[in-house]
Write a structure and sequence with these properties.
Radius of gyration: 25 Å
Largest sheet: 7 strands, mixed
Number of strands: 7
Structural class: alpha/beta
Strand order of the largest sheet: 3-2-4-5-6-1-7
Number of helices: 3
CATH architecture: 2-Layer Sandwich
Strand content: over 45%
């Protein structure tokens, strides 16, 4: 009977686990990033054809808020900003996953010893369940370049950041806020390293 109760408690606790968006964040930056406070920056989409996209126009204010929070002055009407943030994003691949799980089957395994009539409960077998699903790889990338070099063959970058996440949500829009939060958590991150970040998520792909 105790085994049965503990198994039920374990299943209930597993069902209460809160969903998260797990991501890998990689960043490279130069010492100039330490002097960005008050510097003007303009946000541009890559490729440029996305500039008029309603999806990009939805994401842009969210990116602007993050850049303001770390010290930039985000402007749209400045002809000669200090920096340009080049933003790219996409669902860039899918992978089929599968798993097989087993669950114990509980039931009566006999009666009590010494002539007792109360049934004794325990594991009487296992059931196996298999499932397959698609996982989607999504990313957001932001490069911050010196504006006066942006159109050259070798623009001067002061920051390159990329966040990659894999999950079942088939659209970036459904997890964009969480993936962006991962990129800017502890901005600018660890130079030249990839770190793992887990962000709480409501589990919705809407």
């Amino acid at each position: 009977m105790r085994i049965f109760i503990f198994a039920i408690i374990g299943l209930l606790l597993a069902g209460c686990a809160k969903p998260t968006i797990d991501a890998n964040v990689t960043a490279f930056f130069t010492p100039e990033l330490n002097a960005i406070y008050g510097k003007t920056i303009v946000i541009k989409a890559l490729p440029e054809s996305k500039e008029s996209s309603l999806e990009y126009l939805t994401y842009r204010p969210k990116i602007a808020d993050k850049l303001r929070f770390v010290g930039f002055v985000v402007r749209e009407d400045v002809k000669n900003p200090d920096y340009i943030a080049l933003v790219s994003y996409a669902i860039d691949g899918t992978q089929q996953k599968s798993s097989v799980t087993s669950s114990p089957v509980f039931g009566s395994v006999g009666v009590g010893v010494f002539g007792g009539s109360s049934p004794v409960f325990g594991s009487v077998g296992q059931t196996f369940n298999s499932q397959t699903w698609e996982e989607y790889s999504r990313f957001i990338s932001i490069d911050i370049v010196e504006a006066d070099t942006a159109t050259s063959n070798n623009p001067v970058r002061i920051y390159e950041g990329k966040v990659k996440s894999v999950g079942r949500c088939p659209t970036l829009a459904g997890v964009f806020d969480e993936v962006l939060d991962a990129l800017f958590q502890d901005f600018p991150g660890v130079n030249g390293k990839t770190i793992f970040v887990s962000i709480p998520w409501d589990g919705s792909c809407q």
